[in-house]
């Protein structure tokens, strides 16, 4: 990604797309009862509140009435339908893990089997995006946490070891089949890039014709097998990706706000919510997802970056856009064309 003269001027940047992650599947309602919705109506209302605060993308997980993360796709269908009716312009992004929360206290925190995750392509109503993890990796969400972040919570009492040992399964067979099913359903793949390696895998998939759509992605800087949340890791990643990439920055706990401010200044997009962080920067109190969104809206105003509404976010994200050929895909995403006569893999025609 090039930063030419004037790149930091807000008039040369897209409007800011804010993704809200308000459902926090790693927490139990007792961890933050004031801001963890449990009933279906409350989960729908949470989406409305986030949209009215300034978020245009909803990162969606679902809870059962017992407060645990739901793994039933029928519940996802119900929540998506409710959000569609309540805030039709909001971009719905389903978390591809479905729910990595342990079913019972002390159980392993793990992602579901490939066949279950593939069924996200069959959700009805269909979401705008599904997050797609790229390459199997460690996902130790505790590594960049301070003990004060989870003290007194369910993670501190029962599930710390489960989250510390969590693995994201995402091998080549899964990735290719998953992208194919999502694309056939008209659902955008929102790639979760943990480092340059995972980005390079998607570039190769584009060059082979496996994925033919816009490069929309998150840079996930949470440590524990993924990139570290600091300026050198971010700059290294930004040097690798092409101009035109729609990139959202994502981190955890007290790293969320500074990483978002760096991204905001450089024309990137941001994510916040209790799935990422529970605390004010001085840890004096917990902050709700809506309060986190409102904070980013205030900061964006100081930066001079207008905040995108739902329709503007859809245009920036290129929701519903797919390309016909490998060549068109590469050109639209700012990549150099494939070398003539080069071998990109058995799927290239």
UniProtKB/TrEMBL annotation:
Gene3D superfamilies: Aldolase class I (3.20.20.70). This is 3-keto-5-aminohexanoate cleavage protein. It comes from Pseudomaricurvus hydrocarbonicus. Keywords: Metal-binding, Transferase, Zinc. InterPro entries: Aldolase_TIM, BKACE. One of its GO terms (molecular function) is 3-keto-5-aminohexanoate cleavage activity. Pfam families: BKACE. Its cofactor is Zn(2+).
């Amino acid at each position: 990604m090039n930063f030419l003269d004037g790149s930091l001027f807000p008039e040369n940047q897209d409007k800011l797309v804010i993704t809200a992650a308000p459902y926090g599947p790693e927490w139990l309602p007792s961890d933050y009862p004031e801001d963890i919705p449990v009933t279906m109506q409350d989960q729908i209302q949470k989406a409305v509140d986030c949209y009215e605060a300034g978020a245009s993308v909803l990162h969606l997980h679902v809870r059962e009435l017992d407060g645990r993360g739901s793994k039933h796709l029928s519940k996802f269908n119900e929540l998506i339908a409710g959000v569609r009716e309540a805030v039709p312009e909001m971009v719905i992004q389903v978390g591809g893990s479905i729910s990595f929360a342990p079913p019972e206290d002390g159980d392993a925190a793990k992602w579901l089997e490939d066949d279950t995750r593939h069924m996200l392509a069959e959700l009805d109503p269909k979401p705008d995006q599904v997050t797609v993890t790229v390459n199997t990796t460690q996902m130790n969400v505790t590594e960049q946490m301070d003990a004060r972040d989870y003290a007194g919570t369910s993670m501190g009492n029962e599930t710390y070891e489960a989250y510390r040992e969590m693995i994201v399964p995402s091998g080549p067979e899964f990735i290719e089949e998953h992208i194919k099913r999502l694309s056939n359903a008209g659902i955008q793949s929102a790639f979760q890039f943990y480092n340059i390696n995972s980005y390079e895998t998607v570039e190769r998939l584009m060059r082979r014709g496996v994925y033919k759509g816009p490069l929309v992605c998150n840079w996930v800087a949470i440590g524990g097998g993924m990139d570290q949340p600091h300026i050198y890791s971010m700059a290294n990643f930004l040097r690798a990706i092409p101009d035109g990439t729609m990139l959202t920055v994502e981190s955890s706990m007290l790293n969320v706000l500074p990483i978002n401010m760096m991204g905001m200044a450089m024309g990137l997009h941001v994510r916040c919510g209790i799935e990422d962080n529970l605390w004010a920067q001085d840890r004096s109190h917990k902050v709700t997802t809506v309060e986190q969104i409102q904070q980013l809206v205030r900061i964006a105003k100081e930066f001079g970056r207008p905040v995108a509404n739902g329709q503007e976010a859809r245009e920036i994200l290129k929701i519903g856009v797919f390309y016909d050929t490998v060549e068109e895909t590469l050109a639209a995403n700012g990549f150099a064309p494939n070398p003539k006569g080069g071998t990109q893999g058995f799927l290239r025609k």
